[in-house]
Amino acid sequence: MLRLLLLLYCSCLPFLSVAQYLEPNESIYDLQDYQYKYYSTLRNKLIDTVDDRYTLRMIAKPSFTPEYLFQVRKKDSGYLVTYKVTTENIWYARHRDKVGINVKSGTLSSDDFELLRQLYRSVIDKVNYPVNATSIYDGVAYLFSIKDRDGRASGYTVSPYDTTLNAMIALTESLIGQMKPRLSRISFSDQQKAQIQQLIAQCNYILVPDDYKLLYEIHKQIAEHKNGYLNTLTGEEKVLLERPLRELQIELNRLLLYGKFDISGIIELVKNAGDEFANQLDFKFLSFSKNEKEYQNIESRIAHIKEDNLFTFLIHEIEKHREGIR
Hints:
This protein is of the alpha+beta class. The protein folds into 2 domains: 28-203, 2-Layer Sandwich (Mago nashi protein), CATH 3.30.1560; 207-325, no CATH class. The protein is 52% helix and 16% strand. It contains 10 helices and 7 strands. Strands 6-5-1-2-3-4-7 form a 7-stranded mixed sheet, with helices on one face. Strand 5 (140-148) and strand 6 form a beta hairpin. Helix 8 (263-286) runs antiparallel to helix 10. The longest helix has 24 residues, at 235-258.
């Protein structure tokens, strides 16, 4: 029973490239028929009945709860905010055409709008394809769109782990929470304004020479120690190492392009790669071991590998670098 649970657990684990950035939207030409029908109904309920002259938009598609739209457009000297939510989840509705809509609205000051616009623009401009696309079927899918003086752009994510994406969602939800059926004034608190400014600065961070030096040192450590570490592994263990290590190196290079650079974030990337390696070891060797003695021997070896591997070594070296610059 324990091994069955382990098998099920490991088969559901995400790989390294879970939602860290927004991804490009799917093309209408690539949708399957059932997706096209669902999206068409969703658009008809949430989008077709609101003014298309929006500047900012977020559409949320939870797996089981009602879908909803948040939209901001210019109106007079301020900005009109619209929130629309379905009365039930359209995906599971028996009669989709009969699903109702509840609407709330609010007004946002030009200053608050500009902060939110800059945040949306800073995040959406970093849309890119993941290193290894992993399908996530449960969770909440978010579509972000912007149409401003810098052009039209959009991207989506599903249940992101990235702190910036989660913060942007939470800030948007905070405005939704203030809205009422009748037009009402909504705003960000001073603390939220400071948070948005910090998020914008992080998104638009420009790498400095020390950042390039750190990335060079990490790649150098991998090149110098990879072969020596591989010699301690069996053939099957070596194969399981290759994928997370390769994806880690690609993700590190992408930091140069997308400015998601901080030492804590790099350590998290390395840790995620190490976790993937460990999970694959569990799945490969523990799930199908033949007897209890064999299971215990393999478990002991895997425990040793988890404690002392190339990824734990890299984290130690990065920590030393962080201590050295304090």
